[in-house]
Fold these 4 entries.
Entry 1:
Amino acid sequence: MKPWLALLPLCLAACSSLPTPAERRQLAETLAAQHAWQALDIAGERLTLRAWLPAKAAAADELTIYIEGDGLAWLSSSQPSADPTPREPLALRLALAQPAGNAAYLARPCQYVSSPGCRQADWTEGRFAADLVAATNLAVDRLKQRFSARRLTLVGYSGGAAIAALVAARRDDVGRLVSVAGNLDHRAWTTLQRISPLAGSLNPVDAAGRLAAIPQRHFVGGKDRIVPAAVAESYVRSGAAKPASITVIEDFDHHCCWAARWPELWRMR
């Protein structure tokens, strides 16, 4: 199979009435400003990652970091996007909806920023590559320092769940791992969707031994056809989490209605 097929389901869902990169950036900036959040660019060895966080936040032991999904990876079934900034920053909406405690948002590499180090593979077949996990882990370090936090909750939406899990497997300060419509086993996902494997990407199930000790909650939409419940179930079968960690919300899909219900779901985490 051709590599572009790996993103065809997401592309078909995302490519109608496409906003420009500037419009996509403006949406996130407007949402953040409405809640008095400010941008922070975190530079790594090759990539710069964009974060948003409250302009005024008191130091606290606990910090929840929300990691964005894969964004706009493809413009069509044969044309990768030149800018993976998401049309709809759902993980940002989740972060802004958190009802209590400190929260911060972390975009994926090459979203919202122009970085000379960006490569097309960073948002296509190599989106969960080791160097991207390392860059995200560094950004998590910086956010933790910024809030003087001691313990972290990592929340990943869609493909951001894989990154959250892979980062959690590298750390000893993650007290909870949460996924929302998360792609927690991309081999199961590509097999299920009959699409090409994500060559060059790490897979959370291969870190099952390190993840099993972390308390987890995985929210799945009962109507999600992009990342269906079978993906989270495959992750659980690997031993990475307990079966009871999966919570299916029957009337939700991949996009609706996570942000609207997040204050309630956050308390279930």
Entry 2:
Amino acid sequence: MTMLLGCGSAWAGEVQYGATSFTWSGYAKLDVLFSRFSEGEVAQGVGRDFYVPATIPVSAGGGKAYEAFDTHVKESRLVLRTATPLSTGEVVSTHLELDFIVNQGAANEQITNAYNPGLRRYFVTYGNWLLGQEWTTFMNLDNVPDTLDFVCYASEGAVLGRQPMVRYGGARWAVALENTETSLLTPAAAPATAGTGDGVLPDLASNIRFKVGRANLMLAGLLRQLRIDNAASAAGPAVRSSAVGGGASLSGRIGLGAADDIRFVLSAGTGLGRYVALGTVADAVLDDGELKAIPLLAGMFAYRHPWNPQWRSTVMLSQFDADNDTALTGTNVTRRVRSATVNLLYSPFSRLTLGMEYRHAQRELEDGRDGQLDRVQFSSRYSF
């Protein structure tokens, strides 16, 4: 799965133009999903295409179960790279990656099922420098579990995010200044989360990688400014406040036996909402005009077992907990999400993977309302 995050070039095509080499790679993926939401209907879209915890409907027990069948190719991906050697012996490289998820638009499933391509990653590297849009330095790409719901794999327990940055480092450590944004909760009967757009300092992210026996580990840290600066308006008085957010994440992959492995991540901190669990909770909430960061704890554990060179399975558990101050957030906000996943994958040859995956997930609010998702997914993925 790390290869798919970066779409490795094992099967890439290549052409040469002057001193610059151009390579392309990617994969074509079909997803077929049957979903059952225990407490209500979910509109056609991202909550039915992938596992997004915040989209699970909840009720106090009076909800009506809703079932849906969906199929799409939105995760299919295209990667274009360039590499230009310099007279100094160094190489300047670029990486452009697109899929059909991040800017999919409103397709007509009655006839065309067409979706817009969207930018995932676009950066240049030179020596130890990376400049552009890439996966956050707070995230470990080496411990991503081998699942079919690749986009949101263990959503509630994982660190996940891509954004513009300036990064310096190598294989053992890295430090980066990354795009800043504060997600703010507006308490209501239907709480809303939105970015303030008022940041003035970049997020500071760093990681260090080390090995202990057969365990490849990464310790990451994040320090950020949360900020809002709104002028007085008909919607309310002027608000200007800032707070400090940050946290740490320990993750890794541990080899077992001949080919088995364990992959895990444990993250904790305050004001990490937009980095963890796909924004299930906000970074902060207002307390009498002052920002107050929301604490959280999240983790994922996955065990991968190859049955033979062609067949393999992963069993995964994941959980997210938010420590909401309900006097500020209200009780209509997510307190906990947890899920369990098991799959069986078959690769008749290296470029093709077929598989089936089952996931059970539960979302619970502070007021005790909850809801469940049961999903069976079939997928095919051909890499080139």
Entry 3:
Amino acid sequence: MTNTNAKSWLPGFIALGITWGSSFLFIKWGLLSLTPLGVAFFRGFIGGLTLVIYCLATRTSLPKRLSAWGHLAVVALLLNFLPGYLFAVGETHVSSVMAGLLNATTPLMTVLVISFGFREQKVNGNQLLGVAVGFAGIVLVTGVFSGYQGSDWKGYVALLVATFSYGIAFPYSKRFVSKMSYSASSLAAAQVSCSALLLLPFTLLSHPLHSTWTLKSALGMLALGSVGTGFAYIWNFRNVRLAGSAIASTVTYITPVVATILGVLFLKEPFKISQILGGVLVLISAALVQQRLKLIREKEIENPEGYSI
């Protein structure tokens, strides 16, 4: 049962929006010393370690069934490994502001996958409108018709593939993970730890450091891993439990705003008015398609001990 009293969930909701919105800044800081693969690995390693310590402190056991670990490994690949690497790749070519704006296409990608891949529901008029508005926003944000500077297009492709990976992860997790009889923190700890294990061999075979560690890059990775990837899962679960999944999902609208503010203030990143307008269209698209995701969520019994992405 949810408690819609804003005093109970609003602080955690705002904290999560700021945390996820600042992740794009922390990725930029991490890239000062690390390769994109290094950023993805240390993010998963620190995040997994944080969640495992939390589970030990709260005496929460990790999943024991091998089948559970198999599904969690798939979710880790789609939700942590690929996006963690691709967002870092993207931010080597484009600004953190652009990364934050394109991250808001996740609901759009999710509804496309649910509609045409998992076929959970038929697409209605509002969802088709949301998809059209979303693609118009992507065109404005990426500047398709105004041409690209240098390797910008590589960054945009990496970011959109990352959000598409999120879009696959959401329905897969709902189908194979959400009904598991483990706590959210247990599943999150196992999932994020799996991502670090999947990344480990690639990291060992490469050179994750391209220069010496700096204080800024170390602090960025510590914050990105422990807070942005570790505690953020716990806060998101708490928000779903207190406010319900419909309200909790609207944190999507805060993260690009935070990413834009931090990118301009701390990184002095430029942006065009057309890109901001595109970001607004992406958010409108998210609002339209999230009505569809809400309908899918309402089909399920909301379980306070369940797992939520």
Entry 4:
Amino acid sequence: MTAARLTEAEAAALPLLWEGDVAVAGGGSAGCAAAVAAARLGARTLLIEGYGFLGGTGTAVLDTFYGFYAPGPDAPRVVGGIGWEVCEALTARGEAFERPNTYGAGTGVTYEPEALKAVWDELTSAAGADVLLHARVTGVVLDGDRVTGLAVDCAGGPRLVRAAAVIDATGDAEVAWRAGCALERPRRERPLQPMTTTFRIAGVDLTATPSRKLHALMAEAAASGAYDLPRREGSVHRTVHPGTGHTNLTRVTGLDPTDPWDLSRAESEGRRQAAEYLRFLRERVPGYEDAVLTGTSVRIGVRESRRLAGRTVLRREDVLAARDFPDAIARCGAPVEDHDGGTGTVWAYVGGARTGLTYGVPYGCLVPRTLRGLLVAGRCLSATHDAHASVRSMAQCMATGQAAGAACALSVRRGADPGGVDVAELRGQLLADGVIL
């Protein structure tokens, strides 16, 4: 046995916790959608999440979904299905609203994270999925070249999960990495995208200082040497609660979120930067004089880490050319949004301009090249650095998660490997379930 891979004989020594059709590792946007999709199609499904709540980055770090709309005037909505159900459920509660993006990512859907936790609880419960919280995958069970289960560390100690199909929706490709899958090596192409600690403030008048003025004040304050502001084009936006704001300001560079010491340093540095940005807002920005910090993100937000090197690799040229694929299982119109190591953000639009064009996300991006019984979904799908900077939005995470969940349920029903699922049948199922293709 290695630290990551277990044989069937070694796995048999672990107490069996759960056995069924589909096990989903990671309860973020991709994993929740995958679990709901699989369970709705009749698969006995388990969703494994490390926190005590679902939603991942969507509830621990952020408060706005991007990727539902392509950028540009009168741009179309490009994601439906389970992701759009989530938006409708939040809106019906009065806990979400659409917010035009003043940069380039298209209209966002801003929501209350606490409400999103409840929505995911309700959707997974209604679908009949089993949810295991406070649990983390520590190993992968292999029978030859097939993934047959997971070792998890949970409240009761080490346990065994057995499943006919496994979905890696961990964001960091934890399952694929532990199983020995071929992975993209982001740092070989370019430095990893920076991490961001978000924070929330109350007692502010956001209308007093428009975004462009805020950026000018950031640049002026940084140039004075009185403030350490690594990013000069960040945002403070309104939330569902009057007089409050949510930030996307900090920029932690040069650290690897899959390295234990780097991640620890990043968390501390993110909080330090949050305090510095808050000091700047209070001292230099009209409307923020009485700002009160109400909380920082549960963890630092990670844009990029490990990725699968899959059957298909989505590339920059595919994105910018608005390419379609015969096995497309989702659509994306988000620009290549590269938060480089400098003070700004580099944008490159699908089709070269903000015209509402979209591209297809291939099913092959979810499929490992060698191992059977495993799919990936969400941020760790197979893409180059630049393509990943477009397809990583939470709406696309939900869309690829729904596709992975449906594919695994169909493969179990047919007694086949998810990598060999009939793509025409899968696309038909997704269309029937409201997915936009």
